[in-house]
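Appendix B. Worked example

We walk through a single record from start to finish. Start with the input: the chain for ABC transporter permease, Gordonibacter massiliensis, length 446.
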Amino acid sequence: MMRLVFSDLRDHAATWIGALAVAVACGYIGGWVVSLQATAGSSTGALQKFLQNAASSVLLFSLIAAVAVLVSAANLTVSAQRRSYALWQLANVRPALVSAVVLVQLGVVAVLGAACGTLLAAATFEPLFPLVLGSREALAQAVPVADMARMPAVWVVTAAVFLCGGLKGARSAGRTPPLTALREPEPKRARVTWLRTLLFAGMLACTCWASLALNESPDFAMSWSVFVPILMVATLVPLAPLVFPALLGAWTSMVPQGRGSAWYLARHIARHALSSSTSIETPLMVGFGLVAGLFSAMACSVDYLERQGVADISTIGWAESFIMLGGPVLLCAVGAAVSVVMSSRSRTRDVALLVAAGARPATLMAAAGCEALVHAVTATLAGMACAVASTAVVANAFGVPLLGNLAFGEGLVVSLAGFVLVLAATLVPTWAALNRGAAVVLSAGE
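Next comes the structure step. The output line below is what the pipeline stores for this chain.
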């Protein structure tokens, strides 16, 4: 079995490299959390408390993005490999063994990527610590410590999330009849599993509880309102396979269909490839929802203090912004880009089919650009819904106008960066496919 595990990883490195990149990013952020905790352990007083809070903030704000990105990457990787798993079964590999191989592959990639990420974090933590957190005078006495002894905990957590995220895909790889997998690479409609339903119900209950708890007192809301965007985004993530296709179809149907062949192709490709579309849009939605929701919540608190006559109001600084949002933004950007890269093989074949059908190269390049726009807009609209909901909850707790403090500008920065990354990751494989002969691509085997 192990020979099959590593030989398939080697032969399909282009597909697995995306999941590896996501694991590296998670390992790097986890390494920073561990290092901040180790630095706090070697400090005392207010400095120790600040570093402990910094580590907790990095962990909490990155956790939702990490789970969403890791689960999407794991599912997309397994989905992209369905043809290979079908061929294994045709070669008389038992379905249970196919599922076991998939899970082992996910674990190997997760541990390897997380290990590389933690090593990179250990190597860069000490030189980057004064650059990132040096804006605060209180940190001038801090001695950065990268604790390698705690890094394996990051590997275990990353591997656990990878395995949980890919469990459904691994079971599907073993249970799907081979000929069905070879004939239908994508499901006809999106479905939400019972586990996602339970997660949604649990997060919805937590969000409702937090919304009620904030109304206890403005002081309580001042301390805990920044966590409402996290809960709101986490509530939407389990429903992503249902929400994103419906939202994509709704807003693209409002665009006049006579906009040319490029828009027609982009819309239908995005709607057909459910696995890759959801994996691309989920990280962007998480990034926009967290950033816009956080800045909107802080704007609500500032508005409340100004109405109370408080003159000296300290807003969030560069160091605090980086601590809370650096990890989620990094994960969301990497997750969105690698989701496109992991589906490059199927994109190459689709481009070859369209060329054989008479499509012009300029049309296909324009369609790739429109497809990136479709993903970015869909994710942004979903993120806006999360930001509006979280802002309304926080504003109600402070007694300020419900939608008077929305901070979409900061969130749009994430959407723009994500669009640029997705655009590059979409155009490059399309351009590469156009430079290859259609007949060569279509006749190529595994």
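Two observations about the output. Residues 281 and 375 are 6 Å apart (CA to CA). The mean pLDDT is 82.
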